[in-house]
Amino acid sequence: MEVAFRVLATASNMHGRRQFSPPTNRRSNSNKSVWHASLNQLIGTIVSIMALLYCHLRSRCRIPHGVGKSSLNIFITGVCGFVGSSIARHLVESDSTIKIVGMDNLARPGSETNRRELVSNGIDVRHGDLRLASDLETIGPMDFVIDAAALPSVLAGVDGANSSLQLVQHNLLGTIHLLELCKRHHAGFLLLSTSRVYSIEALTSLSLDIQKDAFVVSDTIDPGLTDDGINENFSTAAPVSMYGATKIASETMALEYGLTYDFPVWINRCGVLAGAGQFGRADQGIFSFWLHSHLRRQPLKYLGFGGSGHQVRDCLNVRDLSQLVSTQIASGDRKNVPRTINVSGGQASAMSLKQLTQWCDDRFGKHAIQSSDEERPFDLPWVVLDSALANQHWNWKPEVSMNDTLEEIAVHAESNPGWLELSQ
């Protein structure tokens, strides 16, 4: 098509030039002039039509993102956090041709630790705030943007550490600024979302039993529930917490931007992420927080649900998430694939706080846990995700067992006695 366009354009230019003709009679010259004018007009019309057709086809037939390129340019936000830095390391270790630019506001004390390591691995780390669109002006062009930045606590906006406006600006406005970046460079977008987009009312209404010191679902008649957990059809109706609301709003905006401006969007709703090096706190990174605190004999408490410790979460090792992200980026813009999927360790990794304490007691020695009836906002008794769609469409399933994940956290805790303080 492009060759044809150029040939026709050349022909048009040739016919548009003044040509030398031998002298003839006046009537013949007049007829030839009319004929040449008509021919030039016809060729000009054809060229215009071909040019429009060429531009249309070129816009509709872009090469899928990441396909056929010798190297990829990736932009990762929250790159100095646990998840962002883990994905960045995985990508450069798996493909030395990938070029990564990362951005972080470096707000948490542990961020500097990850920043130094990332820079030593050749990653371009920049200090920036996603709430400021101007901080993104020097970024690009990129093939894919990975949004791993957020205020990730379900208590964000209500615990006094951050205001509700700060939460919305970080988690939603920041995502919109990234989507504008993708629109500008026609880059793919990958959003790391959360299991906390699922309805609190629906989850607290589940019928639960207690088996082996853990809550289990006794009735799965809800169409959003399977024997393996919560699937993508489960209700996302409010309330979902302010944090959950910013993430589901970000999901909706990402899908709309991708459809409107024709770039690929993948949304991964993650279970509780874990692994060595996580900056765990009571309101986020619970597995890391619990192990580090148990080892250091710090006070721990079962909150709510009768102070029993029966509340259950599944666990996803960040290395398994990184593998999926790598596959999604390399795939480009696959068609007829769900844009939004659960990504989780599932039932095989599900564990209650009491079961987690028993694991720690066996590993580190006994440590007494306090009990309290105190209720925290947005606490849930049971959250386990079904990742069947990820397996069906991406041939993905978690490879790192729950025990191996806990063991790598334990080894890291033993080697880093000051990690709890660094995590605050």
Structure description:
There is one protein chain. With 424 residues, this protein is an alpha/beta fold. 43% of the residues lie in helices and 16% in strands. It has 13 helices and 18 strands. The chain has helices at residues 2-16, 26-60, 82-94, 111-120, 164-185, 200-204, 241-261, 286-295, 318-331, 353-364, 388-394, 402-415, 419-423, and strands spanning 73-77, 99-104, 124-127, 144-147, 188-194, 208-211, 214-217, 225-226, 229-230, 265-270, 272-274, 301-303, 312-313, 315-317, 340-343, 351-352, 370-372, 382-383. The strands form six sheets. The protein has a seven-stranded parallel sheet, with helices on both faces. Helix 5 runs parallel beside helix 7 and helix 8 runs parallel beside helix 10 (353-364). The longest helix has 35 residues, at 26-60. It is globular, with a radius of gyration of 28 Å. The N and C termini lie far apart (60 Å).
- Beta-strand proportion: 15-25%
Stretches with pLDDT under 50, minimum 5 residues: 1-24, 54-64
| Spatial separation of the terminal alpha carbons | 60 Å
Oligomer: single chain
For the biggest sheet, the summary is: 7 strands, parallel
Q: What is the topology, as strand order, of the major beta sheet?
A: 3-2-1-4-5-10-15
Derived structural class: alpha/beta
- Total strand segments: 18
Number of helices: 13
Specify the overall morphology: globular
Q: What fraction, in percent, of the residue positions are helical?
A: 40-55%
Arithmetic mean pLDDT? 88
Radius of gyration: 28 Å
